[in-house]
Write a structure and sequence with these properties.
Structural class: mainly alpha
Number of helices: 18
Shape: globular
Helix content: 55-70%
Largest sheet: 3 strands, antiparallel
Number of strands: 5
Length: 425
C-alpha cells in the first residue's frame, strides 16, 4: 500500500490489486483511493493547491450567490416595511458602536437607569481601524466603510474555510463547507458591519497556516484575530496546542522533522500579542489593571458563569406555552452542536481545529448575557460544519445543489425577517 498526499492535502492510500485475466495470465494494477483526513501535524512541503484562487473559485462563486440572495431578500422585505436595508446592515446594534469607535475613538459610554455602564471599550479595535482607514482614503462614510470591510472579509473567510476543508477532506468537501457556512440561519450577519466575518477570515487562515507548517504566518494572523474579538483566544489556543504537539513529536521515540525551533517559537510568541495587548491597554486606561476589561464587560452584564445563566434561561422557557417550543428548540440546538463536535473528534479532525472549535463553543455557551446573540457568536465555529460538508459531498451534485438551494432560500427569508424584527443584539 502506497501513502501519498494530493495537492489539496488529502492523504490517499492506494492499494495494489493483482488480478488474473483468462486465458492469458496477466497482472493488472488497480489504484483504489481510500480518502482519509490528514490528522497529524507532520512537516512536509506545504501544499499550495488549497489556497489557490482558481481551485477555490466554485466555492467563492457559490458563496457570493448565497450572499446576494440574502441581501436581495433583505432589501425586498425592508422596502415592504418602509425600512432601510442599508441602515439595518450598518447602523444598528453593534455596528453602530463600531462606527462610533472609528469616528470618535474610545471613551464613549452610555449610563443606563439601572446603573449599568455600556462602554465602547468592550469592542476590539481592528474593525474600527479598518473603517477609519477606508473612510480616510475613499469618499465612503464610516458605516459604508464597515459594510465594505465586512463584504471583503466574508469572501476572505469563505476562501479560508475552503482552504482548511480542502486541505483536510478534499475540494468537494471544501465547497460544501463554504456553502453550509453561507446558508446558516444567521448568515446575514456575514454581510453586516460586524466583526464576525473579519474574525472568521483571520481565524480560518491562521488555522490553515498552522496546518501547513507556516508558523509565523499563523502567529501574525492569530494576533490580528485577537485584535478583532475576545474569542481570539481560541485561535491562540489552537496555535499553541499545535506548537506543543510539534515539540513533543520531536522528542518522541520516532522523531518527526519539524520547522526550525526558532520559527515555531516566534509564531507561538506572536499569537497572543493582539489579545494581550488590547486587554492590558484597557486595564491601563480604566485604571483597573489586567482585569480592567472584565470590569468593562461586567458593565454590559456579560461574563462567564459556566453556562448557569443560559441553562436557567432555557429552563424558564418550559414554564408556559408556546415558549416551551423555544425551549425545546434551544435544547435541540445545543445537543446538535455537541453532536457535531463529537463527530469531529471521532473523525480525528486535526488538533488545532478541535481546540479552536472547543474554545469558541465554550465561550459562546458559557457567556452569562445576551442569549439572543449566541447564534451569531457561533458563526466563527466553522469546523463544526465539516462532518456535514463531508456527508453533503457524498451526494450526487444535483441532489446536493438542490439541498443547498432550498436551505439558502429559507436562510435568506429568515435573515430578512430577523433583521426587520429583533435582529442581532
Amino acid at each position: 500500500m502506497a501513502d501519498l498526499s494530493e495537492p489539496g492535502g488529502t492523504r490517499v492510500a492506494y492499494t495494489t490489486v493483482l488480478t488474473a485475466r483468462a486465458p492469458r495470465r496477466t497482472l493488472r494494477w488497480c489504484a483504489r483511493p481510500i480518502i482519509e483526513p490528514v490528522t497529524d501535524l507532520e512537516t512536509r512541503v506545504a501544499p499550495t493547491g488549497s489556497a489557490a484562487p482558481r481551485r477555490a473559485a466554485p466555492a467563492l462563486l457559490g458563496y457570493a450567490a448565497v450572499r446576494v440572495l440574502g441581501l436581495l431578500a433583505l432589501a425586498g422585505w425592508s422596502a415592504a416595511r418602509d425600512k432601510s436595508a442599508f441602515t439595518l446592515l450598518t447602523a444598528r446594534w453593534d455596528s453602530l458602536w463600531y462606527t462610533r469607535v472609528a469616528e470618535l475613538g474610545y471613551g464613549y459610554e452610555v449610563r443606563l437607569p439601572n446603573g449599568d455602564v455600556h462602554s465602547n471599550l468592550a469592542f476590539f479595535p481592528l474593525l474600527p481601524w479598518l473603517e477609519r482607514l477606508l473612510h480616510a482614503v475613499t469618499p465612503l462614510s464610516y458605516a459604508a466603510a464597515g459594510f465594505v470591510v465586512s463584504l471583503v472579509a466574508s469572501l476572505a473567510a469563505a476562501w479560508g474555510i475552503f482552504a482548511v476543508a480542502d486541505h483536510v477532506y478534499g475540494r468537494r468537501a471544501g465547497v460544501c463547507a463554504v456553502l453550509l457556512w453561507a446558508v446558516l440561519p444567521v448568515g446575514i450577519v456575514q454581510s453586516m458591519a460586524y466583526s464576525e466575518s473579519l474574525f472568521t477570515a483571520l481565524a480560518a487562515w491562521s488555522l490553515y497556516a498552522v496546518l501547513t507548517g507556516r508558523w509565523v504566518t499563523a502567529g501574525v494572523l492569530a494576533s490580528l484575530a485577537g485584535l478583532t474579538r475576545p474569542v481570539g483566544i481560541a485561535v491562540v489556543a489552537a496555535v499553541w496546542a499545535a506548537g506543543a504537539v510539534s515539540f513533543a513529536r520531536e522528542r518522541g521515540p520516532s522523531p518527526v522533522r519539524e520547522a526550525p525551533v526558532a520559527v515555531r517559537a516566534l509564531g507561538l510568541f506572536l499569537a497572543p500579542l493582539g489579545t494581550a495587548g488590547y486587554v492590558l491597554w484597557v486595564g491601563h486606561r480604566t485604571g483597573q489593571g489586567p482585569l480592567g476589561y472584565l470590569d468593562v464587560q461586567a458593565g454590559w452584564r456579560n461574563g462567564l458563569d459556566g453556562g448557569y445563566a443560559f441553562a436557567r434561561f432555557v429552563l424558564e422557557k418550559f414554564t408556559s406555552f408556546p415558549s416551551v417550543l423555544a425551549g425545546l428548540a434551544l435544547v435541540v440546538g445545543v445537543a446538535l452542536l455537541i453532536r457535531l463536535y463529537a463527530a469531529g473528534v471521532r473523525a480525528r479532525q486535526p488538533l488545532p481545529l478541535l481546540v479552536y472549535t472547543g474554545v469558541v463553543l465554550a465561550l459562546a455557551l458559557c457567556a452569562s448575557s445576551y442569549f439572543g446573540s449566541k447564534p451569531r457568536l457561533l458563526l466563527p465555529s466553522f469546523p463544526l460544519l465539516l462532518p456535514l460538508a463531508v456527508a453533503l459531498a457524498r451526494l450526487r451534485t444535483a441532489r446536493s445543489a438542490a439541498v443547498v438551494a432550498a436551505v439558502a432560500v429559507a436562510s435568506a427569508v429568515y435573515g430578512a425577517w430577523w433583521l426587520n424584527g429583533s435582529g442581532p443584539p
